[in-house]
Known about the structure:
By secondary structure, the chain is α/β, with parallel strands linked by helices. The protein contains ten helices and 16 strands.
Amino acid sequence: MNKRTIFCRSICLVGLSGLIAVAVSGSFAEDNKPSKKLVVGFSQVGAESGWRTANTESIKSEAAKRGIDLRFSDAQQKEENQIKAIRSFIAEGVDVIAFSPVVETGFEPVLREAKKAGIPVVLSDRAVKVSDDSLYKCFLGSDFIEEGRRAANEVAKLTGGKANVAELVGTVGSAPAIDRKKGFEEVMAKYPDMKIIMSQSGDFTRAKGKEVMEAFLKAPNAKDINVLFAHNDDMALGAIQAMEEAGIKPGTDIKIVSIDGVRGAFEAMKEGKLNVTVECNPLLGPQLFDLIEAVAAGKEVPKRVVTQEGVYEQSQAAAELPKRQY
Ligand code: AHR
């Protein structure tokens, strides 16, 4: 698939012996030999956040642009659905399997099955914990620990290092939830007056973010909260609603730092309701399919590809908003 292919809607090719039907997905290489469309099975986490929607769109549109036969499966945030989807991709004999694991653990047996079937696996966005890293070819995604560190540095800047933090954690057991917390706490350890006083999972969704924030605000020590650290923007946006309903001014009474950099976060920053968003880029489609095509062609690829990301403060929101792609 690395050589340029000429795509053709017809399934007929005139050969030496007359008309030969070519029962492939309809593409020809420049040397006029039929070339099969690359078949990729992709198992997505779900549609839990604005980030995820943008990620799915990036993957689907890039596959379409490259003429790849993408078998897309939505796991609805359930690991068992992902395992099932990967097993069907193996049964279908796809060329490459890619997936964004809901949680880090539990994938080793199915990855062994893929390896046994000779189907290479590429991890997108999130990592897995396995005892043998030859079970996947490469992992493309953000450095979630660094995102957590960046968020904590912003909290320190906003509060002069004096922060009672309420933390909205992502999906329990997921790589971004584990690593963002780790990075945040690593930096927090340098500030004796910065502590997490409440912490609960909001499962990366706006609805749960709101629900958990409502509970935080009813806690006996609710008045001590001066910062909300949300592992993603969607949960922060839900929490903003909960604060407003409770008569609290988000961004002022409680400073808010979250992660992703989705458009909704920029809108909230423009309105002064959110203070900082640490970027986590969902537009992985082009890089992902570069890697997938290389893997399918038997080329060596780096084991880890880290996406480049920034940090956006409230003062940058108005200028940045029109440029946001997601
Ligand atoms: O894995 C990336 C995380 O998953 C994003 O931060 C979050 O919004 C998404 O649901």
